[in-house]
Amino acid sequence: MSTSHVAAGQIHLGTSSWLFEGWRGVFYPERLARTGYLSFYASQFDTVEVNTSFYAIPAPATLLSWVESVPEGFTYALKFPRALTHERRLVGGEGLALTFLDVLRSLGSACAPAFLQFPPDFTRRREGRVLASFLDWLAGEAAGLRIAVEVRAADLMTPAFAAFLAERKLGLVLADREQGGDLFECWAERVQAGQGPDFALIRWIGDGRSGPDNLLQVHRDAQLALWAQRMEWLAGQGKAVFGYMHNPYEGHSPASVRRLRALLAESAALPVWPPNSAQLSLF
User: b/e for 206-231, b at 16 or more Cβ within 10 A?
Assistant: First the structure.
């Protein structure tokens, strides 16, 4: 089943998870049961990144619960399992990848771009051939799905690797991370040349060493304004833009998303959310 229903040129913003206890009383109502977090979250934002899939492939019952707990049009961005990217380092991982692709397809229209995240020591010098072979294979197997790749080794954060992905209609994750490289210009060149997939995936990481539950500590006004301009440009190129904010970026990701959304509100195509006809269901 294709997941390309998401409108071109729209911007979808969410957070890295909906399960932070530190948000109780500052985002979630104080007395809201944990089982109600997802439905409440989906009343505020139209997409979310799912980090739990990094540790274990979600069970069918979990996927069904996710889909039935949110309005139509809400999407989930799943991270490929670490068993594939970190433990096996792609070697012999085709079976696991196919199982994960089946999970993505089972989400149907609720599937946002999924992504593979590689560790910093996964390098082109040491594992470039394995990576190229795997991505060639994956691009063929993932027809109808939106797939992106996040790399952190310097010898993969290059225009050449961006071009390699774009030629295969795979996305390059644009991550704003402390002490990390900025790949936007690399990817913008491919977009400007009419290459690559129909989406862009952005992740605001900030200082990942600070821990996930910190409350708002510091505004990054200049960075938010820069990314707002970049997202407007990507949307203007006809890309569906998906962006996910992690708490360490400004200390409290729901507030950061709202600040970013306010910057975009007057000039970018943000979806109307929640949908007027949405009926949240817990059954």
Answer: bbeeeebebeeeeebeeebeebbebb
DSSP secondary structure of 159-172: HHHHHHHHHTT-EE
Which residue, among 26, 47, 66, has the nearest Cα to 203 in the 3D structure? 47
The answer to whether 72 and 271 have CB atoms below 8 angstroms apart is no
Q: How far apart are CA 247 and CA 230, in angstroms?
A: 21
3-state secondary structure at position 42: helix
CATH tag, 11-264: 3.20.20.410
Kindly list the domain boundaries of the chain, sorted by start residue: 11-264
Alpha carbon distance 153, 125 (integer Å): 10
Q: For residues 181 and 10, give the distance between their C-alpha atoms in angstroms, rounded to a whole number.
A: 26
- DSSP code per residue over 109-147: GGB--EEEE--TT--HHHHHHHHHHHHHHHHHHTTTS-E
| 103-153 pLDDT, tens digit each | 999 999 999 999 999 999 999 999 999 999 999 999 999 999 999 999 999
pLDDT in tens, 16-38: 999 998 899 999 999 999 999 99
What is the rounded CA–CA span in Å between residue 139 and residue 2? Answer: 14
Measuring CA to CA, how many Å separate 130 from each of 85, 89, 94, 143? 11, 9, 12, 21
Q: Global pTM?
A: 0.93
Q: Where are the beta strands (DSSP E) in 5-95?
A: 11-15, 47-50, 75-78
From residue 176, alpha-carbon distances to 47, 220, 265 in Å are 19, 11, 21
Helix axes 221-236, 184-192, angle to 10 degrees: 20
